Amino acid sequence: MIVRRTRLIKCLPLRGRILSLPQRRLSSTTAPPASFPGTSIPSPWTGFTSQLDQIAPKFDISAGDIDVLEGPKEFYETLKLKIRNAKTRIYLSTLYIGKTEHELVSTIHDALSKSPTLKVSILTDALRGTREDPEPSCASLLASLLADFPDQVEIRMYHTPNLTGLRKRFIPKRINEGWGLQHIKLYGIDDEVILSGANLSSDYFTNRQDRYHVFSSKGITDYFARIHHA
Q: What integer pLDDT is reported at residue 39 of this predicted model?
């Protein structure tokens, strides 16, 4: 996603498209064009960014609607506050939720109890989320939400198609995660979304620094919700 530092910031989630850049050949006897005062040479990136404008989803958003959080504690407190105040939807995409994150799950539980119309969707990775089985794990932690709110909660765990058959049977846990993981980090609440690299576990809530950008935009939140639910 490209953020342009203008008064209106344009966010462009990139897709897997091949874009051609303008090319210029210079022979050994050709001198580069001279520049004169008051004139400018077009940047070779002009064509590239122009093509991005035509093919990529884009959103105009005021700089005041983007908040950059400074550290893991602020990230955790902001996440819990927004969950407590959620009215319509919560979607959380992460590699895993820490098996001891009872406070976070309790916060989601309280929000669901307070608002019967609230819908919660959680996406984690199946291999990472069940690594500790049959001991307590991410999967067993989230099971209580589904049991208590079957009509409001959706729990999904992505399993890579690259690990099947004999591979799945004989490759040990933890090592098998090398065959592919769900690694998106999206934390959407109502019409706001936090884009981060942080998982939902105690180290990321206390002392493991990452990046955290809060976008207050229905358009951007809807866009990433579609990715989450795909």
A: 58
